[in-house]
Amino acid sequence: MKFFIDTANLAQIKEAQDLGILDGVTTNPSLMAKEGISGDASVIAHYKTICDIVDDNVSAEVIATDFEGMVKEGEALAALNPKIVVKVPMIKEGIKAIKYFSGKGIRTNCTLIFSAGQALLAAKAGATYVSPFLGRLDDISTDGLQLIEDIRLIFDNYGYPTQILAASIRGPLHIVACAKLGADVITAPLAAITALLKHPLTDSGLATFLADHAKAAGK
Ligand code: E4P
After folding, report:
1. What share of the chain is helix, strand, coil (3-state, %, to 5)?
2. Which of 79, 92, 116, 217 has its CA 20 to 30 A from that of 200?
């Protein structure tokens, strides 16, 4: 399973990269705004910096919502660095744009997926990734993990190569559940990823080992 970090915060991206487990980064306009990145030039510069930190898979979102605008923005984003994946919203014009980008060999991430039908359409158009937002579904008392399971079944039924990028992850249990369901990728905040490290028995076990080692060495 690939691990992406869901942030535009450079320190957190570096920390995840240093851990040696990072396969990519997802950002969105809200995450950019949270870091105080505004204006086209700053956003572009930020994407370039992120590309310098990680090995591949930097999702860069188009702002346009019409086909021509998405194509223009997406081609410009893709030209920044081969690591860029153009992030396109799940709307009618977005599906047309994904089909266009797919024909040009430009990788895409279809974002804001909330139903299996939307994921099917994006896969049919040739999306590289689909991003079902499971946390936001959970927030409205709908089973986000069920959506991951449904999309997995549909993609496997037809052999669609589109990868399931489980997004809007809220914590470590979401990550483990997505792994059990066969999501290809998760994108999560750093805290959810590092929470996977933690277990109280690991901490107490290590403390005992170190204490016994010191005692045996007469320290
Ligand atoms: C995915 O690419 C989105 O950036 C993200 O996962 C949204 O998650 P949120 O519900 O935490 O905003």
Report:
1. 55, 15, 25
2. 217
Going by the DSSP 8-state scheme, the letter that residue 106 receives in this structure is -
Give the Cα separation of 6 and 175 in Å (integer): 13
Query: End-to-end CA distance of the chain, in Å?
Result: 44
- What are residue 109's phi and psi, to 5 degrees? -125, 110
What digits encode the pLDDT tens for the residues 47-74? 999 999 999 999 999 999 999 999 999 9
Instruction: Taking each helix axis as running N to C, give the angle between helix 10-19 and helix 40-53, from 0 to 180 degrees, rounded to the nearest 10.
Output: 20
Which three-class secondary structure state does DSSP give residue 150?
Answer: helix
- Pair of tokens at residue 24: 């990519």
Residue-wise pLDDT for 151-202, tens only, equals: 999 999 999 999 999 999 999 999 999 999 999 999 999 999 999 999 999 9
Using a 6 Å cutoff on CB, does residue 150 contact ligand 1? no
Q: What pTM was estimated for this model as a whole?
A: 0.96
Residue with tokens 């410009």: 76
Round to whole Å and give the CA distance between 33 and 62: 15
- Cβ atoms 167, 6 nearer than 8 A: yes
112 lines ligand 1 (CB under 6 A): no
Nearest CA to ligand 1 atom 11: 168
Is 23:4 a contact under the CB 8 Å cutoff? yes
